[in-house]
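Sanity check

After download, print the first record. It should look like this:
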Amino acid sequence: MVTEEQIREAMKTLKQYELEKAQRELMELERVEESKAEPEEQLPQVPRMRTIQECVNYFKVSDPESKVTRSGIESWIRAGILPCIRSGKSGTTKLINLDLLIKIVNNPVATNDGRREVTPIKMNNRRTRKII
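Expected structure tokens:
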């Protein structure tokens, strides 16, 4: 037969187990909240590399009145504002990271005379544009 003392002891053990379980769950929730509190800017696993014409087509589909042109993108490449990778047998095909191009187009820098243009800076031994 089970005595009252044994029942009390079992209740204490059960309460202690539930308390430890609640503490573990609370610690896990805090860990999840900490990871959410410090978001890290992560690059996509595979960058969306496109040719110049595909980039222009992307802007034209998104906004039919877009003023982003092939010659504009080529001038940004020549100026060192927009990095590209050459591919193909002769190396004439230029591939551009579409996400980087979108950031550059979305963040122009205002100059002293009021015109808006991008500003190239030296970074990681490459000429890239400062994104602000």
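If your output differs, re-run the checksum step. Summary of this record's structure: Strands lie at 49-51, 85-87, 93-97, 109-110, 116-117, 120-123, 126-129.
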